[in-house]
Amino acid sequence: MAPDPVSQPSEPLSYRSAQGRWVLASMILGSSVAGIDSTVVAVALPAIGRNLHAGFQDLQWTVTGYTLTLASLILLAGWLSDRWGRRRVFLAGLIWFTLASVLCAAAPGIGWLIAARAVCRP
User: Which of 19, 45, 83, 114 has the most beta carbons within 10 angstroms of its beta carbon?
Assistant: First the structure.
């Protein structure tokens, strides 16, 4: 199957241009979201355990569910990016991540938190 013309730029993007610097900055900041999320959750695990009355295994699943989902969707995201365009998939992923973060913040219990982190992360 021929690549989608939308995902193929007509000419290479120079990182010396203003547009190239914006693309680079957006990618760095967007990619940092996963690392920041993992760090924040690791620091907050004791408070999560207290507030949601969660045991050690529940807290492990809070972290592991997110990691498994992220690792399993990386290849799919690459394929979708090649098919539908990198920008479109990147923005969809950021929107999905934001909505999932809202679900995590609103989780009434540890089961909901685990589900929101595992199912709703791109």
Answer: 114
Question: Tell me, what's the pLDDT at 51?
Answer: 94
Rounded to 5°, the CA angle 58-42-113 comes to 40
| Non-local CB neighbours of 97 within 8 Å, separated by 6+ positions | 33, 37, 121, 122
Helices 86-105 and 110-119 meet at what angle, rounded to 10? 180
Quote the radius of gyration of the chain (alpha carbons, Å). 17
The beta strands (E) that lie in the chain are given as none
What residue ranges do the domains of the chain occupy? 32-119
What would the two tokens of residue 84 be? 């539908």
What pTM, to 2 d.p., does this model score? Answer: 0.75
Q: Are 66 and 74 in contact (CB under 8 A)?
A: no
Rounded to an integer, what distance in angstroms lies between the CA atom of residue 82 and that of residue 4? 8
How far, rounded to the nearest angstrom, does the alpha carbon of residue 99 sit from its chain's CA centroid?
A: 11
